[in-house]
């Protein structure tokens, strides 16, 4: 919280400074910090200084020191800016609604040379839309050590800088952003370019809300992203689509291979070109990283100095402090001062690198200089030296205290005089050095011969690694009155070997992992009892001091082995000890120190200590390539990408890859009806824009996975037996299995397991997956081969084809590469391939690593999956325009085929060139009969079509005109339709009759006459029969009497019928 409060004060001072600067346009009087905090929402202030393309010597529109507050509409002033020279402030916007921010976007802005500050912009949720193409923040100006600061952003959800590639100097700070998420899903070490090996130099306040980070980077490889919609981009020399190799001076991608096609330059930009150094006719202008002309420099009121355009002359040079007879002031150059041309700066406390920047070129500090550095930096002494190397005089006092990361005071190499004047420090000393836990020496006294302290004395206390001998040397070369010194000799150097008695050491390399260390007996005189020796060793490519890398909080410092005196092995006059489990082909530094029975006072007691010696282990098999994945792929190629342990970059000299193809077996896929259960092609397996360098270091919150694996590998034996197959290898359709049973991610933790265990674990994660028999046989085959050749090859090592017969191996290639990528070509479209990648230190199977296993399919090809469809008909084909209409906008066929009957028979054999395997067919038919056009489709499986001998019959077809086309469905999905085929279906003819039309008419009349005659005879016969029956009926008395009084009148007639009339 103390850091946050101090940063808030500094931001407030920035507000005042930006409001009071003469170069800014102010509509209100300058305000104090308190007034700005309380009335910031009522202030409208914005400043943009634009430079034309002519002034900037390229086509980029540059803006300088953008300070926008209160009034969001002022953002239009940077609408076309591609570069902001200096800082970008966006602050104090409490009342701007969130919808207003959506109206502004600056896609042209690619570069900020200073820093980015976002302060109390209440309703801004993300920078995704504001700065979608911001690629580089150079950090030439900093707030403390930070190049990007987000403070009091209450509604910011994510940063969203999806194209940010690099922060060349400085780090990131967030505080009072309660819902800001996804900071831990970004590889900041890749962006800042710093290893962060011992400390987390970024400051991130944990969000107070819960962030959904489980699936946020799903589909990103590696697993870094700016949020759920944007994977983090890593620049590795190629454009982000992976198709263009950029010029070496490009930084953020490119549009071509030339130095004029860079989106952002790595260093200097001259006109439209990115260059390593400016040409002779141009001047370097560091404020903008541009190479500018002399005329452009003079327009900026600059001076010419040693090939640069500087706004003020550096220390030791002056534009005017020279003899007039030798000076040509029209040249606008910086002249070397004959005696001294001082640059006076006010006193200050240096706590951060941004404080150092204000002292560049200062020769005189008009006051006191207090140095209390609170944070580490990979090049801390270099940064301090760049700002303080010219300081010659300090009018007040020099105080260096509680700076745990300073190892020396050599950054004050020009210091000659400390006046010790009264400055209100309430101190009796002019030079105070105390409580610096890592301070090991003061100056290089071979170069520094003299120091003067004009009044008062020195104060040294509690510098654990600073030997008293260094303090004595400083007192000897300093002209001052030492009667007032206060030096606590016992509290300085008590953790350091200050009184050293050296003894001999040497080493003998036995193998790639074993080295014998020899050392002579310690013969020093001491009242302590010698218990044994401590062997210190460390991997390094540079020469080391025994006192470097002794930060107790670091896991990257010296390792130790204790050798008890009673267990030590003697060989002649030498003690000896075997160091084991070292890294192959690695340079080590080592030294030996005595170990006594009780704690000694290193500042007074004698200690046995050897000189630092070095050895390099022999070559051996490297560790398997890590994070094997698909970088990009086509229908005939797959580009593999991987990373190596940082310690093995020099060891690996070549690679070997075995390529296996997994056949797509029709019998297996025929068990599924792809018409009822359509196929959904899998998403590309692990395709990333580019490889990522995971060689950076770790911090508490953001730990580098690769270095953790390397640390684990050092503590484990039998790395050769480890399977490094990727997640989801056994099924390309398997969902994301990065989480273990408890929901915690297991990615990045390399676990030792056998092949059976790997299969069992994968089966446990996805019990529904049916493993391919080929994969099972492949793994069993590999295990058996490894067991047979374990002694010779050591695990899953590279195998010679003469010894082992491989199953389905189609290629074996040995190659070299400098970007950890390799393209396997000559593949077939949408086929499933398995890759075994070996890293080798020599072209010999003995020196090749165990393989890393990976599998993926190639992309589908749009030029295959084509059918050749014919219509079986006995009628001739008619070639003329078909006057038909169709719902489809495609060009209709001009060839008309005719068939007779109620069916259409199609013939199309199974193609040989298919994306993977044919699984089904689709036939579409469009009826053109009547006023309504009707279309329908049919689907048949591959097996059904094969059983029908590649014939397909469309039945119950009414006479008329039809359009027909067909489509193949493969494992990659539906292919292209064939062209429409036009067919005319005719009704079947009536049965054929005898004779011609006249004969038919005559036969019809004759038949009618015959029927008429037979009808006449039949009618006559019926009449006669009726008359005969009627005569017999008159002679019979068959009248029926009716009952009386039934209410009806009954009239009997002679014909035998009864007529009844109802009442």
UniProtKB/TrEMBL annotation:
Catalysis: reaction(s): L-tyrosyl-[protein] + ATP = O-phospho-L-tyrosyl-[protein] + ADP + H(+)
Domain Fibronectin type-III: 499-602, 622-846, 890-975
Organism: Anopheles sinensis
GO molecular function per UniProt: ATP binding; transmembrane receptor protein tyrosine kinase activity
Positions of transmembrane segments: 1005-1025
Single GO cellular component term: membrane
Region (Disordered): 711-767
Protein known as: receptor protein-tyrosine kinase
Compositional bias segments (type: Acidic residues): 711-724
Keywords, ordered alphabetically: ATP-binding, Glycoprotein, Kinase, Membrane, Nucleotide-binding, Phosphoprotein, Receptor, Signal, Transferase, Transmembrane, Transmembrane helix, Tyrosine-protein kinase
Chief site of localization: membrane
Membrane topology, as annotated: Single-pass type I membrane protein
SMART domains: FN3, FU
């Amino acid at each position: 919280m103390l850091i946050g409060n101090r940063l808030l004060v500094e931001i407030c001072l920035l507000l005042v400074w930006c409001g009071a600067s003469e170069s800014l346009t102010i509509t209100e009087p300058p305000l104090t910090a308190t007034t700005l905090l309380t009335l910031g929402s009522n202030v409208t202030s914005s400043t943009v200084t634009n430079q034309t393309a002519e002034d900037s010597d390229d086509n980029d529109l540059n803006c300088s020191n953008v300070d926008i507050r209160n009034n969001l509409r002022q953002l239009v002033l940077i609408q076309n800016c591609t570069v902001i020279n200096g800082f970008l402030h966006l602050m104090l916007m409490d009342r701007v609604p969130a919808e207003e921010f959506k109206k502004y976007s600056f896609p042209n802005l690619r570069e900020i040379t200073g820093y980015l500050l976002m302060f109390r912009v209440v309703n801004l949720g993300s920078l995704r839309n504001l700065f979608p193409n911001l690629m580089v923040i150079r950090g030439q100006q900093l707030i403390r050590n930070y190049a990007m600061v987000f403070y009091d952003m209450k509604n910011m959800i994510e940063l969203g800088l999806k194209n940010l590639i690099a922060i060349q100097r400085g780090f990131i700070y967030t505080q009072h952003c309660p819902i800001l998420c996804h900071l831990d899903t970004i590889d900041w070490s890749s962006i800042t370019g710093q290893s962060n090996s011992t400390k987390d130099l970024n400051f991130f306040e944990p969000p107070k809300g819960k962030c959904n980070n489980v699936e946020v980077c799903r589909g990103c490889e590696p697993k870094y992203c700016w949020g759920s919609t944007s994977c983090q981009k890593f620049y590795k020399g190629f454009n982000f689509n992976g198709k263009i190799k950029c010029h070496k001076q490009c930084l953020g991608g490119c549009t071509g291979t030339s130095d004029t096609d860079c989106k952002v330059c790595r260093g200097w930009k001259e006109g439209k070109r990115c260059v390593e150094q400016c040409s002779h006719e141009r001047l370097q202008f560091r404020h903008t990283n541009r190479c500018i002309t002399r005329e452009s420099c003079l327009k900026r009121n600059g001076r010419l100095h040693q090939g640069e355009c500087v706004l003020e002359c550096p220390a030791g040079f002056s534009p005017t402090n020279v003899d007039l007879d030798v000076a040509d002031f029209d040249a606008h150059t910086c002249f070397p001062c004959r005696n001294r041309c001082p640059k006076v700066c006010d006193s200050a406390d240096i706590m951060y690198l941004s404080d150092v920047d204000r002292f560049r070129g200062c020769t005189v500090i008009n006051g006191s200089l207090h140095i209390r550095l609170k944070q580490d930096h990979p090049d801390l002494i270099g940064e301090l030296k760049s700002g303080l190397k010219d300081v010659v005089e300090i009018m007040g006092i020099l105080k260096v205290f509680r700076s745990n990361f300073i190892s020396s005071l050599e950054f004050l190499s020009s210091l000659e005089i400390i006046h010790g004047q009264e400055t209100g420090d309430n101190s009796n000393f002019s030079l105070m050095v105390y409580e610096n836990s890592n301070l090991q020496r003061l100056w290089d006294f071979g170069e520094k011969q003299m120091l003067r302290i004009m009044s008062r004395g020195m104060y040294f206390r509690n510098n654990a690694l600073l030997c008293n001998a260094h303090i004595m040397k400083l007192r000897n070369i300093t002209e001052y009155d030492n009667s007032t010194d206060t030096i606590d000799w016992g509290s300085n150097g008590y953790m350091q070997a200050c009184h050293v008695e050296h003894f001999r050491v040497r080493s003998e390399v036995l193998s790639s992992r074993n080295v014998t260390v020899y050392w002579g007996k310690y013969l020093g005189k001491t009242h302590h009892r010698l218990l044994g020796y401590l062997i210190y060793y460390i991997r390094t490519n540079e020469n080391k001091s025994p006192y470097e890398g002794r930060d107790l909080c670091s896991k990257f410092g010296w390792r130790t082995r204790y050798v008890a005196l009673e267990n030590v092995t003697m060989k002649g006059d030498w003690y000896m000890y075997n160091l084991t489990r070292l890294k192959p082909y690695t340079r080590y530094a080592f030294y030996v120190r005595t170990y006594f029975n009780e704690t000694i006072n290193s500042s007074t007691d004698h200690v046995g200590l050897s000189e630092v010696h070095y050895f390099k282990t022999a070559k051996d098999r490297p560790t398997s390539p890590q994070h094997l994945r698909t970088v990009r792929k086509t229908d005939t190629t797959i580009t593999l990408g991987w990373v190596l342990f940082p310690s093995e970059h020099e060891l690996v000299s070549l690679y070997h890859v075995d390529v296996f193809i997994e056949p797509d077996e029709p019998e297996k896929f025929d068990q599924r009806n792809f018409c009822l259960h359509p196929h959904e092609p899998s998403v590309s397996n692990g395709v990333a824009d580019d490889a990522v360098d995971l060689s950076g270091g770790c911090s508490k919150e953001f730990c580098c996975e690769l270095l953790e694996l390397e640390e684990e590998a050092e503590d484990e034996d039998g790395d050769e037996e480890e399977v490094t197959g990727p997640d989801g290898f056994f099924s390309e359709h398997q969902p994301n299995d990065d989480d273990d049973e408890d929901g915690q991610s297991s990615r990045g933790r390399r676990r030792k397991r056998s092949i059976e265990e790997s299969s069992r674990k994968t089966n446990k994660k996805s019990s529904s997956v049916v493993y391919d028999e080929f994969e099972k046989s492949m793994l069993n085959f590999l295990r058996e081969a490894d067991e047979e050749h374990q002694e010779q090859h050591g695990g899953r090592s590279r195998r010679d084809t003469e010894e082992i017969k491989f199953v389905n191996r189609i290629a074996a290639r040995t190659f070299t590469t400098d970007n950890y990528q390799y393209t396997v070509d000559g593949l077939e479209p949408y086929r499933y391939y398995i890759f075994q990648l070996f890293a080798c230190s020599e072209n010999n199977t003995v020196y090749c690593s165990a393989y890393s296993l990976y599998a993926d399919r190639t992309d589908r090809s749009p030029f295959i999956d084509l059918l050749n469809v014919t219509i079986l008909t006995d009628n001739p084909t008619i070639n003329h325009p078909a006057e038909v209409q169709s719902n489809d906008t495609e060009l209709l066929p001009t060839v008309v085929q005719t068939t007779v009957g109620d069916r259409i028979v199609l013939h199309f054999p199974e193609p040989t060139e298919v994306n993977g395997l044919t699984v089904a067919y689709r036939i579409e038919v469009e009826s053109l009969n009547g006023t309504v056009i009707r279309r329908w489709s049919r689907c048949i499986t591959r097996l059904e079509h094969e059983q029908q001998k590649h014939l397909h019959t469309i039945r119950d077809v009414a006479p008329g005109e039809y359009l027909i086309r067909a489509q193949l469905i493969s494992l990659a999905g539906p292919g292209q339709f064939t062209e429409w085929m036009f067919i005319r279906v005719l009704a079947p003819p009536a049965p054929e009759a005898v004779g011609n039309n006249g004969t038919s008419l005559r036969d019809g009349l004759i038949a009618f006459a015959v029927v008429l005659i037979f009808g006449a005879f039949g009618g006559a016969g019926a009449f006669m029969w009726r008359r005969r029956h009627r005569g017999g009926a008159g002679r019979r008395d068959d009248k029926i009497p009716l009952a009386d009084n039934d209410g009806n009148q009954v009239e009997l007639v002679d014909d035998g019928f009864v007529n009844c009339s109802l009442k």
